[in-house]
Amino acid sequence: MVKQPLIAGGLLLWIPLLLAHAWVGIRDVLIDYVHQLALRLSLLMLFGFIFIASGLWLFKAIITAGVTT
What we know:
The protein is an all-alpha fold.
């Protein structure tokens, strides 16, 4: 299924869009509800790292699934 170029391309386009949407939501929640600047920046960096790592893992999973199937 992932070997089909349109499906793989759609998934590879969907991942950054989903992560960007999640980033905006988390950022807004943290800005609204975490008032200590150091804690807010630490949490933003933590979530940024988590989103980047998740995106790279998903890219690898899609590429690997397309190659091995």
